[in-house]
């Protein structure tokens, strides 16, 4: 009933917009009214239209962004209602005023042109707000709409997708905002020890593009003290572990804490294990949680290194090292980092550095269900894994079984309906809201669990 009332309300509010968009036809129908009344009516309808188009909405759930999305969605709903009612108005006019059928064709064409202009202006206003505020709608959908906007009914495909995706984001984020209040007051993620988030290979801890997406801000909002590993993007496990150990000592000196909780993704899990076992960091680690870490390597990496021409691999390595040296790495080593992810190297690693039983460990893994579940290069990694072994279940890079460690609690992210959860999804790299899996909430629950354990 509530939804029906809301829909009826929007239909009523759209009527002045429809009337203003048919202003030429309205003047012909109201020809018997005197000029001042028609001018006042036209001014009133124009104010209604401009108010709907330009009104600045107050914060929604404390967010200007959500208010902008709400306004954009409403403008698109007005557009849909007016477009649906327009032919009905023509039919009603022909029935009520038989003489209207004999209206000059030029007037009808001009009226339609005016209607189309005001509808396009409304559509532009709505799409502009969604383009700025709705982060879940990818840019290529707007490009698609730009290319086919004049091709009815094909233009409905991108338009409906943009509307439904933005609407889903609006309700999703609104629900999160309401949950935020309670968790912020309770400081749900305020663990006893600080949290060190350790990135994987081929990335750095850049400030302008956070490797962990929206996760750190969410955790900090709920009271977590978050720091980063700051190791190089690609180096051997030994070198990255040394840099990680230095960062751990720096964080402990800054915070005065006795220990910290490590949450490590991908190769970061191997870097952390090396620092614990070889570099004397164990006394300063309260817990280690590895996310999609190839503890037993990636057999398809071995396969690619053996299959691809050595000259091609070296060329890629040279280009990578040159680029990342400019981006901040001191001594980038593409090949050193990749070779430490082979199954052979990881087997040697596990034999030499067994799990420290004094430190609580937790292994977490996800699984992709289709190569379309993630963009390049994860889609390519998924196909490479499947080509190497069709029975392999993986996250696009790491085989599922590689993320397990004997004697360590293991969590497999429940499958979503279609896409699964990729290697990048587990760090919110694409800032995407995934149906059936809220990655930010997943990390919140991780820290709540650590807090309850006194860590």
Tags for this model:
455 residues, alpha/beta, 2 domains, six-stranded parallel sheet, elongated
Mean pLDDT: 88
CATH architecture of the largest domain: 3-Layer(aba) Sandwich
- In whole angstroms, the N-to-C terminal distance is 48 Å
Order of helices and strands: HHHHHHHEHEHEHEHHHHEHEH
The rough form would be described as elongated
What is the number of independent domains? 2
What is the multimeric organization of the chains shown?
single chain
Radius of gyration using CA atoms only? 29 Å
What does this structure look like?
With 455 residues, this protein is α/β, with parallel strands linked by helices. It has two domains: 2-173, no CATH class; 188-452, 3-Layer(aba) Sandwich (Rossmann fold). The chain is 56% helix and 6% strand. The protein has helices spanning 2-21, 23-29, 35-54, 64-96, 105-133, 139-148, 156-186, 215-221, 237-255, 267-278, 299-307, 310-326, 334-339, 343-352, 378-388, 439-452, and strands at residues 195-198, 226-228, 260-265, 285-291, 361-365, 410-412. It has a six-stranded parallel β-sheet, sandwiched between helices. The chain is elongated. The two termini are 48 Å apart. The mean pLDDT is 88.
State the gist of this model.
This protein has 455 residues and is α/β, with parallel strands linked by helices.
Question: Helix and strand layout, with pairings?
Answer:
Elements (H helix, E strand, L loop, with lengths): L1 H20 L1 H7 L5 H20 L9 H33 L8 H29 L5 H10 L7 H31 L8 E4 L16 H7 L4 E3 L8 H19 L4 E6 L1 H12 L6 E7 L7 H9 L2 H17 L7 H6 L3 H10 L8 E5 L12 H11 L21 E3 L26 H14 L3
Parallel strand pairs: 1-2, 1-3, 3-4, 4-5, 5-6
Helix pairs in contact: 1-3, 1-4, 4-5, 4-7, 6-7, 9-10
């Amino acid at each position: 009933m509530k939804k029906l009332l809301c829909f009826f309300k929007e239909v009523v509010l759209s009527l002045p917009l429809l009337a203003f968009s048919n202003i030429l036809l309205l003047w012909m129908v109201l020809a018997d009214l005197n000029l001042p009344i028609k001018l006042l009516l036209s001014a009133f309808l124009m104010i209604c239209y401009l108010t709907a188009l330009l009104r600045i909405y107050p914060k929604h759930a404390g967010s200007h962004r959500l208010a902008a999305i709400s306004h954009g969605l409403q403008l698109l709903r007005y557009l849909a209602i007016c477009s649906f009612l327009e032919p009905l108005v023509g039919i009603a006019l022909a029935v009520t005023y038989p003489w209207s059928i004999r209206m000059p064709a030029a007037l009808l064409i001009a009226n339609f042109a005016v209607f189309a202009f005001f509808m396009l202006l409304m559509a532009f206003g709505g799409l502009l707000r969604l383009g700025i505020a709705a982060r879940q709608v990818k840019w290529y959908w707007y490009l698609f709409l730009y290319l086919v906007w004049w091709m009815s009914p094909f233009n409905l495909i991108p338009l409906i997708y943009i509307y439904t995706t933005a609407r889903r984001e609006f309700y999703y984020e609104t629900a999160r905002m309401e949950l935020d209040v309670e968790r912020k007051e309770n400081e749900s993620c305020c663990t006893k020890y600080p949290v060190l988030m350790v990135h994987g290979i081929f990335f750095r801890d850049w400030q302008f593009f956070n490797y962990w997406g929206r996760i750190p801000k969410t955790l900090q909002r709920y009271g977590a003290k978050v720091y980063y590993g700051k190791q190089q993007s690609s180096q051997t496990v030994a070198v990255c572990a040394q840099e990680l150990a230095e960062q751990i000592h720096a964080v402990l000196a800054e915070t005065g804490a006795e220990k910290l909780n490590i949450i490590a993704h991908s190769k970061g899990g191997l870097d952390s294990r090396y620092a614990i076992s070889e570099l004397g960091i164990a006394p300063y680690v309260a817990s280690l949680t590895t996310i999609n870490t190839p503890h037993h390597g990636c057999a398809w990496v071995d396969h690619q290194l053996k299959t691809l021409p050595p000259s091609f691999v070296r060329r890629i390595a040279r280009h990578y090292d040159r680029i990342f040296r400019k981006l901040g790495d001191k001594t980038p080593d593409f090949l050193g980092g990749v070779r430490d992810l082979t199954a052979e190297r990881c087997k040697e690693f596990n034999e030499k550095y067994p799990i420290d039983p004094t430190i609580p460990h937790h292994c977490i893994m996800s699984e992709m269900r289709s190569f379309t579940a993630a963009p390049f290069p994860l889609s390519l990694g998924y196909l490479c894994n499947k080509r190497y072994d069709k029975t392999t279940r993986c996250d696009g890079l790491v085989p599922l079984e590689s993320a397990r460690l004997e004697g360590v609690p293991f969590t497999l992210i429940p499958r979503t309906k279609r896409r699964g959860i990729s290697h990048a999804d587990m760090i919110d790299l694409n800032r995407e809201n995934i149906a059936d899996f809220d990655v930010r909430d997943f990390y919140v629950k991780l820290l709540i669990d650590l807090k309850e354990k006194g860590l």
